[in-house]
Structure formats: structure tokens, C-alpha cells
Automatic annotation (TrEMBL):
Its main location: nucleus. This is RuvB-like helicase. GO terms for cellular component: nucleus. One of its GO terms (molecular function) is DNA helicase activity. It comes from the Eukaryota. Its EC number is 3.6.4.12. It comes from Thalictrum thalictroides. The keyword Manganese does not apply. Belongs to the RuvB family. Coiled coil: none annotated.
Amino acid sequence: MKIEEVQSTTKKQRIATHTHIKGIGLDPNGKSFDLAAGFVGQNGAREASGLITDMIKGGKMAGRAILIAGPPGTGKTALAIAITHELGTKVPFCPMVGSEVYSSEVKKTEVLMENFRRSIGLRIKETKEVYEGEVTELSPEETDSVTGGYGKSINHVIIGLKTVKGTKQLKLDPTIYDALLKEKVAVGDVIYIEANSGAVKRVGRSDAFATEFDLEAEEYVPLPKGEVHKKKEIVQDVTLHDLDAANARPQGGQDILSLMGQMMKPKKTEITDKLRQEINKVVNQYIDEGVAELVPGVLFIDEVHMLDMECFSYLNRALESSLSPIVIFATNRGICNIRGTDISSPHGIPVDLLDRLIIIRTETYGPAEMIQILAIRAQVEELTVDEESLAYLGEIGQQASLRHAVQLLSPASIVAKMNGRESICKADLEEVSSLYLDAKSSARVLQEQQERYMS
């Protein structure tokens, strides 16, 4: 008798550099734990970030900017990711790198503004009258075509909707029948129809029809509660960039010329300042009426020293506008030239912009902290490492860098498997360490063997 194990069809999560970061890891009083939420050390920086997240949640932080500065591999990006975890999924977070602004298609300032608008959310609340339920019958009533000939035209549609509380039969306009056909609605589907606009939305198939297969094309939903006809509050989350993009595309006609125009159009549409001001007016009107609320999110610009003077002057203006997100910069540069100029400045950022920033420093990790981080990474990557090997890896991290030590974990696990072991021991790490050079030892080799290389 053959016994087979059934493999799960759920996808395994891909392990990235910051998979282990789950939050900032603070107690209720805002003090940081030495080891919490995947974070180790950096207590001062984490407490500062905790205060910032509280201010963002309270809506007292818009239009301000923060700079996370520290040597490479000290957890600057990890801090930004931790802040987003703390803010939750509803707050927009838009990460970008300084070099992203140098696009061949659109202006530098346009790329910056686009990301600014992506980081500001708008929560629109609408109360709609809807008919909601599971379709029990769907029968179009036909009549002879008014224009003569043999064709039949739809006069009206009879649709039966069922909820937990009861059923209702509706007589609908023929235009709604077209919408039903477009959504591919069949008997047994759960749908809702908006009373004022006649828009039809198919939610899914009723779970009374659910089968026991693991993998199915259908999404099964429960039977709606309450009456068939009800008032429903619909909350929609959009970003300002979504509104810009929706209004920027020209709505062409159906003639050949407009089709040609759409084909020949460049990939990106530049959104004009005038259009954005018009959208801001409408948004402000919505906010005043209480229909919508603004959700200022976070724009994270990594490697901020890659921006040039024009971008920095634009950022100065953008930070002052009434609709502005929280901007977090990160850089690992000391005193260096501002890109494109001979002016030397701290972190490669002009002094007038630095003056606006709250600066958070990240410190280099000590040996004990490095060992803790390596232990967390090994756990995330599902590897077993003994104490001696972790201590050896910590030494490598001190001599080379933490990133290099973390990168040695995966190859060492493969070497251990080749040697017929499940756990990684010091010998595996020594073997892998001899195979790969880190940045410092590579530079040392280059210096020692200068005459062999072209310079």
C-alpha cells in the first residue's frame, strides 16, 4: 500500500533582508527593550522613532522631515520599515532611492512630486443605498424589437435576491442587465446593486456552493446579513497620486485618430501643476464637508545624498505645502560634496534643508549585539547554528561587516548539508569564509598586488 504525503499549496514567504523586523519593540511607556520585534540594540534611535510614530498617528507630524544617519549596516532601512509596521496597513508608505529621480522619461521634480502624492492617503466615506444578496433567479423579459426586424430587445430583468433575513424580487432596467452580463453574474453569486447609480458588483460565489478542493478559481463568501435593501457605508482608501493619474489620462473618443494617439503616446504622462491644484481644491472641499479625511503617510528616501541641488530646493518647497506627508531620509555619508556642486556639507545635504530635519543617529553594533542579530537571522532562515559558530560569525562581523557575516549563513548551511549534518558548525563557516572575500580583505589584496591590476 502506497502512502503519499499531501503537500500544502500555500506559497512559502520569500526571506528578504528585513523579514525579521516586525516593529520597533517598545514598552507602553515608550522605552525600548534590548531585544524585541526582531530589533537588537539601537535603543536611542528606536525610542526616537517611537515618539515619531505616536506623532504621526496623532496627525501632528505632517510636513516635517526626519533624517536617519549612521554608518552602513547599522539598521537605517530597518528603522523605516519598523515605523511602517507600527503605523499599520492603512497608512500609505512609499519607499524610494535617491537615484530614482534620474529618469529619462520625466523630470526629477516630477518623480519626487509623484512619490510625495503617493504617500498621502485620502479616506472617502460614502453612504449608499444598496440591494445586496445571493442571486436566486435571473430572468430577462424580452419584447419584440421597437425598430422592427426579427431581433428581440430586453424590456426588463427580474432578479431574486436572498439574505439571512429574507428574499426580495426586483424588476430592473435593461441597462443594469448589461452590467450583470459584464460582471458574469449567475444564479448562486453574491452581488450588490447600487440603487442610485445602478452599478453592479459581484462579491463572490455563495459559500453554500463551496466544494472541498484546496485550489479553486472561485472566491466563496458568506450569505449577507440583514435585509436585501439597506443603507451601507462604503469606505474607500485612495492616494492623491491615484486621483492625479485618473484625471491626467485624456478620455479619447472611439475614432481612428484617438486610437493612434493612444498607441503612440509615451509610457508616462506628466501631470501638470495646474491639474494637481484643481485636485487639491476638490480634496479640500471634501475634507471641509466631512466626506473624506486626509491620511498623511510616510515617504522614505534612502541614499538621500544622491539627490542634487535642484531636488533639495524642490523638497524645501514641497515640505511647506499644505498637503505634505512625513518624509524620512536615510544616508550613510559623512561630510561630502552636494551632488553636482563643489560645496561640502554634512551628509551631502544643503545646510538650509538640514536645518529643517530632526536627526536620528544609528550606532555601530557591538560583538554581543551582532551575535544576537545573527541568531535571529538564522532562526528566520530556519538554520540551526551552535554557540561556538555564532561567536565565530560575530568575530567575522567585527572584522569585516555585519552584512558579510549574515551573507555567510546560507552558503554555510549548504556546506553543512554536503557534509551530512543538519546544523552549521565552525568548520563549515571557516570553509565558506576562506571561499569568499569581504570588502576590506578585497581592498587589502588590491593594495598588496597593485602591479597586477590596471589602474
